[in-house]
Amino acid sequence: MSVPLLDVRDLRVEFPTRRGTLVAVDGVTFSIAPGEVLGVVGESGAGKSLTGMAIIGLLEPPGRIAAGEIRLEGERIDHLPPERMRRIRGRRIGAVFQDPLTSLNPLYTIGDQLVETILTHLDLGRAGARRRAIELLGEVGIPAPEARVQHYPHQFSGGMRQRVVIALALAAEPRLVIADEPTTALDVSIQAQIITLLKRLAREHGAAVMLITHDMGVIAETADRVAVMYAGRIAEVGSVREVIHVPRHPYTAGLMGSIPRISAGAGKRRGRLVQIEGSMPRLNEIPGGCAFHPRCPRRFERCLAERPEPQRLAAGEVACWLYADGRD
Amino acid sequence: MGAIDQPLLRLVAVGRDFDVSRPWLNRVLEGAPRQLLRAVDETSFEVKRGETLALVGESGCGKSTVARLIVGLYAPSRGGIEFDGLELTDPARAAEAQRARRRMQMIFQDPYASLNPRWRVRDIVAEPIRTLGLAATRDDALSRVGELLRQVGLAREDGEKFPHEFSGGQRQRISIARALSGNPEFLVCDEPTSALDVSVQAQILNLMTELQQRLGLTYLFISHNLAVVSHVADRVGVMYLGRLVELAEADEIFARPRHPYTRMLLDAVPDLDMTGRGRTPVAGEVPNPLAPPAGCAFHPRCPHADARCTAERPLLASAGRAMVACHAVAERRIAL
């Protein structure tokens, strides 16, 4: 593999509270190559969004990076002074969040917002920035960009707004795009359009995309590799095809089984969905050993006592004692 | 009690408008017109005893308004709603209608907003029992609550706790226990799992299927998620901009979708099995319901639209084993 564009090593995010320190992200390690889409999937509370926020340096205090390294094109970017991080954000890292309405300022036209972003990061004059803004809107599939550039966010529909947010994230041609649930607030028919857009971004601009979502379907269609998170740790990483067709970790297997699918012979005669008993532990109740063991149908003594480190397999990495010593 | 082969619920040409006009003063000063939003229009369907009818559609298609019309949270602007042979909208029979509505309950989308945070779970679940006078004594009510909590997979002792002590999935179980405590026959479930994580969603869907079999319940299941619907529904109705565009048995609608909008929705479902099918990109978005397109509301996005579609609104008519509102299907312009 070529030099990774983003390299995260042993990242640990903590929240100090009066009742002790909560560890929300615990020893997370992964990397993304240029032109690659890495899906980060997990249920609420898995730590996937906090991992993204830690990378772009927008952790809400008292949350903080307690250990680990984050490298962007080889350069350490954790613990940079806020002013330097602000320059990296927007210029080299673009961010797309779930709710497009809160990412846009309602008082300015989208043209003004795009032009401001472009002027902040690129060496262009005002006229050039405006031309670039219109070009970007066209690129993300907004019809009649010359007219739309003068409109305010409320004049756009949900799907169009998310395109504007993506255009904003791309304004300075960042090397890394972090998209946190970019399609979750959108209807299915619009989702497909946004997914196509994200994919093109990686293919055509060689950007690295970190796609954070709870929706395996979106991952299946967009990502090259996927990291499955559970209780602040990565349970499994591998190529999308491997993880979806041959999930190794019992959590991934349960997760895949619990997703309803449309296939021949619809209707409830098809019987029960696979279910994982219980739910994700709260941060102050993460069990010892493997965090998944209380819900795991395949647990044994070792899982209760010892925490599994990621095991390297031919297909990827799995943090599960079933695969100790590289057994597969 | 009506005859057994008679549908439990029947909607006849139901419509509901919302007045979204500017305030009176603005209308007078600026001459702004009165503006009505047709959330639901000309919607007719039946729900048979013991079945699950699912209504699917994108946001703003009117599916939740239909749910609220049925349980009486909104009054219809037009049309009739019949429950077990009784016309609920008939003012002369209001008292009977109120009694009939006790036989239905609703489960809401957000289990964080639908449970009173200041009440203990046992009081939340017991409220319908008390209000409807279903238990002679307080002890009877409490033992019934314990039984209901067990039925939805919680423990009797959980009744002493407050809602915040539970996860989203457990809260939705509490909502289900509360809905069941009034001994309803008919449950209206408005996106009951869309606020939940997938592994928890599977638990709730399995629970709802089990309860239906055990208690002989009838469900109206509202969802935007076609995959979820394909697991629970006997029949499926697809809504677009306030109207039903297709209604058929679940097997039929997933195997042979007829309406171009139904096909588009099915196409847009992510391909989890990675068959490489690739999504057909869909042009455009749901139009503004304040200014719906003339003719068929779907025509601006429809690949099969012609002059007739832009002028004349198609009615729901039978096409093979389905009911479809589409000129192109009726004229056999679409190959099935």
Major sheet of chain B, described briefly? 8 strands, mixed
Percentage of residues in helical conformation of chain A? 25-40%
- List low-pLDDT spans of chain A: none
- Beta-strand residue fraction of chain B: 15-25%
Instruction: Determine the N-to-C terminus distance of chain A.
Output: 23 Å
Radius of gyration of chain B using CA atoms only: 22 Å
How does the helix and strand content of chain A classify structurally? Answer: alpha/beta
Show the largest interface.
A-B, 49 and 49 residues
Beta-strand content estimate of chain A? 15-25%
SSE order of chain A, as H and E? EEEHEEHEHHHHHEHEHEEHHHEE
Oligomeric state of shown chains:
heterodimer
How would you describe what is shown here?
The complex is a heterodimer of chains A (328) and B (336). Chain A has 328 residues and is of the alpha/beta class. Helix content of chain A is 34%, strand content 23%. Chain A is built from 12 helices and 12 strands. Chain A has helices at 48-56, 82-91, 100-103, 110-121, 126-139, 145-148, 158-170, 188-205, 216-222, 240-245, 250-258, 301-305, and strands at residues 6-17, 20-32, 37-41, 64-72, 75-76, 93-96, 176-180, 208-213, 225-230, 233-239, 311-312, 316-318. In chain A, the strands form 2 sheets. Chain A has an 8-stranded mixed β-sheet with strand order 6-7-8-3-9-10-12-11, with helices on both faces. In chain A, a hairpin with a 2-residue loop joins strand 9 and strand 10 (233-239). In chain A, helix 4 packs across helix 5 (126-139) and helix 5 crosses helix 7. The radius of gyration of chain A is 21 Å and the shape is globular. The mean pLDDT of chain A is 89. Chain B has 336 residues and is an alpha/beta fold. Chain B has a domain at 234-336. Helices cover 33% and strands 21% of the residues of chain B. In chain B, strands 6-7-8-3-9-10-12-11 form an 8-stranded mixed β-sheet, sandwiched between helices. Chain B has a 4-stranded antiparallel β-sheet with strand order 2-1-4-5, covered by helices on one side. In chain B, helix 4 (121-131) packs across helix 5, helix 4 (121-131) runs parallel beside helix 6 (168-181) and helix 5 crosses helix 6 (168-181). Chain B is globular. Chain B starts with 8 loop residues before the first strand and ends in a 6-residue tail after the last helix. The mean pLDDT of chain B is 90. Classes of the chains: A alpha/beta (328), B alpha/beta (336). At the A-B interface, helix 7, helix 8, helix 9, helix 10 and helix 11 of A face helix 6, helix 7, helix 8, helix 9 and helix 10 of B.
